[in-house]
Every structure is written in C-alpha cells, then in structure tokens.
Design brief:
86% helix; single chain; mainly alpha; 81 residues; F1FO ATP Synthase; rod-shaped
Length: 81
Amino acid sequence: MNPLIFATSVIAVGLSVGLASIGPGIGQGTTAGQAVEGIARQPEVKGKIRGTLLLSLAFMEALTIYGLVVALALLFANPFV
C-alpha cells in the first residue's frame, strides 16, 4: 500500500469521526438542557417532553454512527487503494 494514501486515509478517519461527533454532541447537550428546563417549568408534561427528548437524541446519535461507518470504510475497505 502506498504510504501517502495510508496516511491520508488515517487523517480522514480522524477528521470524520471528530467532525461527525462535534455537531450531535453540542446538539444533545443543548437538547437535554432545554428538556430539563421545560420539565422544571411544567412538570405535568414530563412524559411528553421525555419521549420527544429520547427520540431526538436517537436521531442525533445516528448522525454520529454514520460518521463512524464512513471512518471504518475508509480505514478497512479503503476505496483509494
């Protein structure tokens, strides 16, 4: 394997995992904080807020998993070789 292609692939893997986790991480923190604030303001709608929170967190986590899949594809099934 060409060392330049291997080094570039490793750098791309690091960037894809890092960048794919920054956005959902910030979003999950903001969403959880707003959900806690909403529950504190209106405790009677705790069930609806929690259900919506868990669904939105699952969608955000899926974005991170897509980044991981791209990273693993670049690392192990390198299309550039």
